[in-house]
Design goal:
The complex is a heterodimer of chains A (290) and B (159).
Chain A lengths: L5 E3 L4 H10 L4 E4 L5 H6 L7 E4 L9 E4 L3 E5 L4 H5 L2 H6 L1 H8 L4 H6 L2 H7 L6 H7 L3 E5 L4 E5 L4 E3 L2 E2 L6 E7 L6 E8 L9 E9 L5 E9 L6 E2 L1 H7 L6 H14 L10 H24 L2
Parallel strand pairs in A: 1-3, 2-3
Antiparallel strand pairs in A: 4-5, 5-10, 6-7, 6-10, 8-9, 11-12, 12-13, 13-14
Helix pairs in contact in A: 9-10, 10-11
Chain B lengths: L3 E7 L2 E7 L5 H8 L18 E4 L2 E4 L12 E3 L12 H8 L9 H14 L5 H7 L11 H11 L7
Parallel strand pairs in B: 1-5
Antiparallel strand pairs in B: 1-2, 3-4, 3-5
Classes of the chains: A alpha+beta (290), B alpha+beta (159).
Chain lengths: 290, 159
Amino acid sequence: MIHDFTYLKPGTLQEALSMLSEHKDECKIICGGQSLLIVMRQGLLVTDYLIDIKGLKELSYINYSENEGFKIGATTTHRMIETSKLIEQKCPVLVAVEKRLASIQVRNWGSIAGNLAHGDSSGDLAPTLIALDAKIKLASSKRSRIIPLEKFYTGLFETALEKDELVVEVQIPLVRPKTAVAYKKFNLIENDQAIVGVAAAVTVENGGTCKEARVVLSNAGVIPIRARSAEMALIGKKLAGPLLVKAGEAASGDADPVSDIHASEDYRRHLIKVLTERMVKQAWGQASHS
Amino acid sequence: MEKQLLKLTVNNQGYELYVSPKALLVEVIRDHIGLTGTKRGCETVSCGVCTVMIDDMAVKSCSILAVQAEGRHVTTVEGLEKNGKLAPIQRAFLDHGSYQCGFCTAGMLMSCEALLKENPTPTKEEIREGIEGNICRCTGYNSIVRAVEASAKGNYKEE
């Protein structure tokens, strides 16, 4: 059962930040609560104060510019992203990932920042956004800073957020020309949590060689993992079957998965290898034809 | 724990309740307001039996604090009928036998209603996606999909 807390509902971001600054040692932020309330009910998380930012309309937006790409406010729901025609057009992988995230009910209420800040390494959005080179904007009452999403994750359910900081925005740069991003998770029930997932971003050069690559793994360790040896294996090479196998094996080696009731460590490594091959191939193909 | 005033609109009726801020929406609907159509199931956002609509969106009331629904319109399965007449989707469920044990039905109806409000002419695939968050262990979903199709075709008018 949920332990008692004092409920605080700020009317503005400024108010939220000053509440956070005042109660930083004994508070948690709730937005949609689709992850938070589960762990609170299990008694895994106890807090004296709960600051509810769900109603902060000023943080609910999807902005786009030709120079900077997308800026998505913290309280923007998954469903807003999923149904955004502009995101579908400019960043289709994000819509594809959202459609397979949990259920419609969860996507209607849950927010992008809540998903990212919860820090569950089996999330789908974080690896996809890291493959897209997204940044995250954090603010406190005193300052704000923007860091690569990749640097946001520091440990098991731990992030770079200081106690008085709040996620306010996610920034996704324009997908560069001749670049594509693909994500696939493996699970037994569609839309369930990833047993593992792989996001791959590939940029091709004239002549068909791989100019840049990112391979990011979901649920393959305590945080989203960049499979750097897989990326190194791809860069400068031409697409070929053996190269995909090599990249898959490298990604499998970069992973640090656990064994649990869903899959053994060995099976996870195998899945990572297979999914890496498939996602790199898919992204490469799409990038070549873009 | 100190209770606080909560003003909630459920099925177009206003309620003023004193509840703890940690009360979940499903608890307030069932235990405080007494509308027991909405069920409690897994309570971990997995099964969908607690589905209600907030501002016409399907949501899982087991994982929303009741205070978060303040100022919004909550619709439960009891709110589907109008003037004592069942809603089109309810009659479609009856005609197509879209339930067996019935435990998922209230939530399933709310997901179907929300789907049809957003997309009045869904394809079979879209219907299946629309009820992806609701688990039914009896029907195998086919009869539910048929009921939504029939309702979308306009076979059931509001009475």
